Amino acid sequence: xxxxxxxxxxxxxxxxxxxxxxxxxxxxxxxxxxxxxxxxxxxxxxxxxxxxxxxxxxxxxxxxxxxxxxxxxxxxxxxxxxxxxxxxxxxxxxxxxxxxxxxxxxxxxxxxxxxxxxxxxxxxxxxxxxxxxxxxxxxxxxxxxxxxxxxxxxxxxxxxxxxxxxxxxxxxxxxxxxxxxxxxxxxxxxxxxxxxxxxxxxxxxxxxxxxxxxxxxxxxxxxxxxxxxxxxxxxxxxxxxxxxxxxxxxxxxxxxxxxxxxxxxxxxxxxxxxxxxxxxxxxxxxxxxxxxxxxxxxxxxxxxxxxxxx
Length: 310
What we know:
CATH architecture of the largest domain: Orthogonal Bundle
CATH superfamily of the largest domain: MetI-like
Distance between the termini: 62 Å
CATH topology of the largest domain: MetI-like fold
Strand order of the largest sheet: 1-2
Number of strands: 2
């Protein structure tokens, strides 16, 4: 009776040295962190499909039962956030595109165009200073500039008379310009790090052939910049879409026709009766959809850009 038991023990003992304990430990660590980061998303997702009674009666990460499932929260969230969602798209897409383009051209001029090393260094220092200025330090002068010094409501007064425009949209335009200006320094720095890794031979060969600075950028540098464009586009789009402080300062209220999705989301599902967690989770997931789509569209370029930058 003891012989089969001894044989099984010997087989297990022979297998143990063959196991790769490092790979097992690594798999366990990866599994732990995957569960750690996916748990809040999963909890928010299942909560968004629960009724108010199911939210209080069930564990947060447990899916709702047949009696506790509802799509009402998603319908209310989409209806409540739709205007802010469109406003955020109108603000985020152009400001991201313009910031990426200006950041790329600025990095090109400070890296691959020779117009004086001292002057380039001085301009580069100004860009670096712009990166480290915190949002909180510019809120008061920023608000004063757009309200008193350069009020777009008065400057573009004929535009606001159009049927689909309102004077409040001037604040959305000022917010768009603010994000462009504030995003250029960091985008320039990211592009500059990438351009420093490019070979000078292509640029020098183009100069010998008589290509202008603009032609070199358009036909050589810009096509080679696609991986880094993906990285910077994802970063800048996500940062602008999720930004709250500038929106609160320049737009001011979630009831404004120009309110962004983050402003409207801040008050969603809260009233005197309490907090509707299902509605808030549905709104948060709905507001996060554009960033998820951008990551999916630029995932390949993002990976190539990170690999090239490293």
